[in-house]
Specification:
Length: 222
């Protein structure tokens, strides 16, 4: 009976809700979701930032008593998922070219590809690969795009590892530190996760506004 109830809860999981994912799959779910979000174009909608932050909170044991994650396995799963996913996305881009992205009808995905190209042009390979980790959708698209553009394997691998560790470990530890310092943090979990989502979107919004200003300036120059 217990096994069937657990299976039912897994089948009923909401992939857009970090708490639902963590309740159903725990630490393993963190690694799988990060791999899909950073390595597979179909994973662009997954909640990477909020998942990491919420997982960090749950690792303190002070929030949502029915779910407790161990910090060390959590950090390992998050790091492995983020790094393996990015490398997989890069290899897919090298082998499949831009055909996979061209087939997608998602406007959000194509907008992310445009921002990723702008990052690469503006900041160069190293800085763009690191910065992309902190921008939803862009971190999904930039990895295969780097493969399409034939960014040197060593360059991509070095900087995706740097960016991936800073992002996955940093956001998780931020949640853990906050959960450890605030009593009854579960009362504020929803607002905190919402705040993390908003903050994670700031770089993307800044890029959009910068692109619009640039396009407007070109139009006025004509």
């Amino acid at each position: 009976m217990t096994t069937s109830m657990h299976l039912a809860s897994q089948l009923a999981v909401n992939v857009l809700d970090a708490r639902s994912l963590l309740t159903a799959f725990g630490v393993v779910g963190v690694g799988v979701v990060l791999f899909a979000e950073t390595g597979l174009l179909i994973g662009f909608f997954l909640p990477g930032d909020s998942l990491l932050f919420t997982a960090g909170l749950l690792a303190t044991g002070s929030a949502y008593g029915t779910v407790h994650l161990s910090l060390a396995p959590l950090l390992i799963a998050a790091s492995v998922g983020a790094l393996a996913g990015a490398q997989c996305g890069y290899l897919i881009g090298r082998r499949a070219g831009g055909s996979l992205l061209a087939r997608s009808r998602s406007r959000r995905l194509h907008d992310g590809a445009k921002r990723a190209e702008e990052l690469l042009e503006r900041y160069g390979f190293a800085k763009a690969i690191v910065l992309a980790r902190f921008i939803p959708v862009v971190r999904t698209v930039l990895n295969p795009l780097a493969g399409v553009l034939e960014v040197p394997v060593r360059t991509f691998t070095l900087w995706q590892v740097v960016g991936g560790l800073v992002w996955s470990v940093g956001v998780t530890l931020a949640g853990y530190a906050l959960g450890s310092s605030i009593p009854n943090v579960d009362r504020y979990l929803l607002p905190l996760v919402a705040l993390i989502v908003v903050v994670s979107l700031i770089p993307l919004l800044a890029e959009v506004l910068r692109g619009r200003r640039k396009a407007r300036a070109k139009g006025e120059a004509r």
